[in-house]
Amino acid sequence: MSDYDIRSMRKRLSYSAVAILHALASGDRHGFDIMERTGLASATVYPTLGRLEDVGLVTSAWEDPALARSAKRPARRNYELRPAGKRALAESLDRIRTLQRLPQALTPRPARS
Amino acid sequence: MKSDDRRRRFVREWLRQLSRLAPRWRRDDWLCEWSAEIDASGAARPLSLLLGAAAHVGWLWSHEWSLDLIGADVTYAIRTLLARPAFAVVVIATLALGLGATTAMFTVVDAVMLRSLPFSRADRLVAIWPRVTLSPSRLEDAQGPRESLDAIGAYSAWGFTLTGGAHAESVHGARVTPQLLAVLGVPPLAGQWFPPEAVHPGQAPVALIGEGLWRRRFGGDPGAVGGRLAIEGVEHRVIGIMPASFEFPSRRSEIWVPITIDPGSGDYRANFATLVGRLHDGVSAATAQDHLRVYAYQLQRESPAQFGAGFLERTLVIPLQTQMVRDLRKPLGLLLAAVGVLLIIACANAAHLLLARAANRDAEIAVRAALGATRLRIIRQLLVESAILAGISGAAGMLLAYIIVAVLVPMVPELPQISRAVVADARVAAFAALFAAGSAMLFGIAPALHASGPHMQEALASGRARGRSSRRAWLGHALVWGEVSLATMLVVSAALLARSFVQLSRVDLGFRPDSILTLHASAPEFLYRGDDAVRTVFDNVVHQIQAIPGVQGVGAIQLLPLTADNWNPGVAVEGVPAAQQYPLDVNWRTVTQDYFRVMNIPARGGRSFTGADDQHAVQVAIVNDAFVRAVFHGQNPLGRRIRTGFEGKNQWVTVVGIVGDVRQHAIAQPALPEMYRPFAQHPLDSMRLMVRVTGDPIAFAPAVRAATARVDRDIAVDDLEPLGAVVDHALQGTRLPLLLAAMLSVLAMALGVTGVGAILFFDVTDRLPEIGVRLALGAPRAHIRRLFLARGMRLGFAGVATGAIGALAVAGLLRSLLFGVSPTDPATIAVVTAALLLVIAPASYIPASRAARTDPVKVLRAH
């Protein structure tokens, strides 16, 4: 993916995307763990993961099939943050924190005569 | 635990089902990932889980079709097309030709038939026939709203002479009733329309002028309203200016004055008017016609002498638009159809070219499929290529259409007033875009579906990827066959039109148009009041022109031959009971005594007019052959007396001569019964002069002008042209469809023939291994050549044969456009068929001889 695509994706980083990046940063590796941590629906999590992977913020790898076979279960797909994803997450969190510092109530300015 | 297992199994089963909906190349991954997740999570909340999985599948698809991938398709398509520029150019040229011709034709047809006249709610306007002579009571009668008409207006096209300027100017216009505005619904640009009382005699003369005249004569001065204008020497007050779009009753109309109904005046011409009405909402022209026929019946009962037999049948209500484009409707409709056929041929040609190329790309496509490209993905790729081709062709076609329209429209004098607005507009562009998109689908989807079929895998496996399946070969041949058939139909139609044109130009017009200069001269009414003054001034004009060296003779008639204009009263023969009188109108002309000699109209009996046939002598007339046949049923008319509405009450005229028929209205229209009256007995102040000269007629124009000016500077002279040009103009109506049909059929033929050549060429490429083997086994080269030549000729013959049959089937459509040749004329069809086969032969010979030149060693090594 080109830089341009990443930039445009970062600009459009939704809350669920930020939440998923955050979950991955906290050590979650699978769709279900992310769902549990973030409370997002599977219908949101998987497409978002796909999109994040497309723009290069997240990478995924299949678990070693031998390992899965020995545990008698299907191989799982592990998701991981890429450096770009970490940067994007940091930027987004920064922005959110900045927004949080804004005063809670909106006080209208008196109009000048 | 047990229910846990059951739930897991249930979810897994559904996941498996769902996985079928996923894009193929992501299917396995998807299923694996979700199975693992379910395994890990224990399949709690199975429904929301399955919903999530379904949403994921949806996302995968949207991802599949996402824009950046389309972008990749576009890049790839452009690269593919550039790799074979010749192919791309041929396909684009083919389609651009079809689209351009179709769009151009649509532009013209749209302008003529679909666009409304420049009047308010023009679809409600109707023309009412026949024309009537207005009397004060009749006018009032006609103006009142009727059960089916909101309003009726009357007009009479009229030529005016503007005097008082540096020179007299002849201007077209009309005398109209004030109600005409309510009917047409076009407000003046400035000033006002005529007040209702303007029709009463004794009112101060007023006039409305057109925008063009306003700019010309008043320099666009807003103060012109209320200004003065001398028309025929009478000062008129200009009360309003009409917009340039108000082209009524003709394109050249620039002055309108009210019809004044003077009960004391015997001027029947002034009151001979055409009626135009506005229909009530929801009333059809047919209903209005029924209502008017009831009225016509009453009129006939009240005054049977005035409204003779046939009056009822001649009472017609025709939509104004229909009336104005009447003569063009059919040819344009047929041309549109012909152009549509050309477009189909072009699309078929492009389709089989794409099909053939797809055959050569089988290997590429098979490889892509093997690498995991889905069928949809491949189809999309091919569709994108087609769409790009169609897009470029569409743009090129629009450009072509613009050029065609710019070149063509000035060549068509028959296009009615609306033609000025003929420019490619948004609707035309939409039409072209629709067609371009349609053709992209049409010729894109067949090869795409085929090229991506499941057999491709086998093709790759068996190494036959370069070969074409017989089904596709069949489709290609069918397309070419259809092309040739359609092209044959077009060529047959064009050939029939050409023969018809030849027949028309051979028609005996009844007069000899060569070496005649014709001009329109009108003596201003204010200077020449009364018959004597008019007689004298035209005598002088004729004498002056006759004195010019090189002039052999001068004749005059009030209307030019080969034009639609007419004076046609009903006629009665003395001593014949009313019931047996000729029920229809006859043509009525006034001519000077030399007219027949100058025009070379042959005498059939009796005598010609002489100088003795003056106002004091017995009133006489000369009739034509058709008149003798129709009115006198072939009996000798000489010495019999006849009367028309133009002769005044109880004024009988004696028939003294018979002359040959003249094509008075159109070349293709047989002569109508016609009577001529001597100018001396029935002078008119506006006449068409015919000057027979030695040498080039138009060279005499300055001398003729000068001669007229010597008589009086205030005589308006215009429309100087050789009579030959008038005949040419009359032929134009046939020349245009012929020209267009010829162009279209040449294009169609070129496409059809190249179609045969191209498909044969692909056949040869396809069968190269076979040819190589045959040659290696000792087959003579001539045999190979014959094989492919025969293949091409078979295809050509099949196409030409079905085309000929098709031409016979649709022959009826052409009938009304043809003159002197049957639409199923066997000679024409035979000649066209033979000619087409002659053209197809070399087109087949070239690929056939290429096949024969094949080097078996090279081919066998390559395969």
Describe this structure in words.
The complex is a heterodimer of chains A (113) and B (863). With 113 residues, chain A is mostly helical. Chain A has six helices and two strands, in the order H-H-H-H-E-H-E-H. Chain A has a two-stranded antiparallel sheet. In chain A, helix 2 (15-25) crosses helix 3 (31-38). Mean pLDDT of chain A is 79; it is low at 1-5. By secondary structure, chain B is an alpha+beta fold. In chain B, 53% of the residues lie in helices and 15% in strands. Chain B is built from 26 helices and 21 strands. In chain B, the strands form three sheets. In chain B, strands 1, 2, 3, 4, 5, 6, 7, 8, 9 and 10 form a ten-stranded mixed sheet that branches. In chain B, strands 13, 14, 15, 16, 17, 18 and 19 form a seven-stranded mixed sheet that branches. A four-stranded antiparallel sheet of chain B has the order 12-20-11-21. The longest helix of chain B has 44 residues, at 723-766. Chain B is elongated. Chain B starts with a helix and ends with a helix. The model of chain B is unreliable at 266-270 and 416-422 (pLDDT under 50). The chains are: A mainly alpha (113), B alpha+beta (863). The interface between A and B is medium-sized, with 21 and 21 residues.
Mean pLDDT of chain B: 80
What is the overall pLDDT average of chain A? 79
Name the chain pair whose interface involves the most residues.
Answer: A-B, 21 and 21 residues
Please tally the helical runs of chain A, counting DSSP H or I stretches of 4 or more residues.
6
| Alpha-beta classification of chain B | alpha+beta
Query: Can you count the helices of chain B?
Result: 26
N-end to C-end Cα span of chain B = 65 Å
- Rg of chain B, alpha carbons: 38 Å
Intertermini distance of chain A = 54 Å
Stretches with pLDDT under 50, minimum 5 residues of chain A: 1-5
Number of strands of chain A: 2
